[in-house]
Amino acid sequence: MIGVIFATMAEAGPFLSLSQAIPVDDKPLRVFKVPARPNLLVTVSGMGKVAAALACQTQIREYKVEEIVNAGACGSLQSGPGYAAGAVFCIATAVEGDHEIFGEAPLPIISDGKIDWDQRAARLITCDRPVFDDAQRQALSATADLVDMEGAAIARTAAMYKTPWTMIKGVTDTAGASDRATLNKYLAKVSEKIGKLLWERLKTT
Question: Among 3.40.50.720, 3.40.50.1580, 3.40.47.10, 3.40.50.300, what is the CATH number of 2-202?
Answer without folding.
Answer: 3.40.50.1580
